[in-house]
Amino acid sequence: MVKAALRNAAGSGAAKTIGILTSGGDCAGLNAVIRAVVARASLGYGWRVFGIRQGTMGLLRRPVEYDELDPGTAGINILRLGGTILGTTNHGDPFAFPLPDGSRKDRSAEVIEAVRLLGLDALIGVGGDGSFAILRRLAQQGGIHLVGIPKTIDNDVGATESSVGYNTAVMVATEALDRLQPTAASHDRVMILEVMGRDAGHIALAAGIAGGADIILIPEIAYRMEAVAAHIDRIRRGGRNFALVVVAEAVPDRTGKRVRAAGAPTGTAYGGIGRVLADEIARLTGAETRVTILGHVQRGSQPSWDDRLLGAAFGVHAVDLIAAGRYDRMVAWQNRCVVDVPLADAIARPQQVDPDGTLVRTARGLAIGFGDG
Ligand code: F6P
Question: The whole model's pTM is what?
């Protein structure tokens, strides 16, 4: 192991100092990414790694907020932990930073200055498409050598089949259905499970199939309330006394309006469509309904083996990209391999559920309804 590391280091050129930050909503597997980056950079190449605190917020503070990471502090001790040891933020865009008086200020130059102050040869940004758009703009403006690692429970980053955090979120949502089914059956109820996913229905679709849902509603497939009610009626006429419905948070109500969480800090977060559906289903079918809004438990779990594996592969490949001097790229998972793609591709095409894709066809083959029948 040590010999291999020294061999790698010998061929790696000048010693570097790299930075890593986590940005956007946290998810399970971020610490597995950090561990992999630290291991590869430090043991593989003999580089220093600075972990920046709270995404770009750490770069806006003076003194700049960061910790030097090494395999002792950021090694296998963090592999199993949910969240991110670095902290993160999903607001505070440095190009339009919110000020107390409600106005916005461009603070991008401060972020760029911080990267120079730390002497970073390259920066690894672990984020979703929103974070990548901001980080890429900063990189272009400030000549920062940027590599992206995709993470989001929503799994909507383009050009990669999977992002860190998605698998664990699906696992949590599936487990929620496992727990809802017995209580639904005991009380003859229709249970509605609302899951996250922003504008994509990946979590709802995957968990709905894995957890035996009867109906899956996703933003990519328009539904009619009457079709949802008819599906539930059919199930009950067939002799089953309960039903499970999974709904993605961005599914609109019957007027086409997205339901937003009251008092959400960013003012943009979705939440509450589950309650709307429960009322409508009760009204149209006479069934007793209950709602579970799963919320942030989908983000907070210990990472699944899959997210740890993805985090490891992504972290190692990201460092190798820096060693090869290949920047403005995002690591990605395609056809059972870790690859890298232009960051621009990942930002340009967010990945929504394909309404004609394998998983939708699978669900239909299982007689799961999408409310479009
Ligand atoms: O993008 C991840 C995500 O968890 C979405 O699924 C959800 O809509 C949003 O973040 C919630 O954001 P917040 O943590 O600000 O409530």
Answer: 0.95
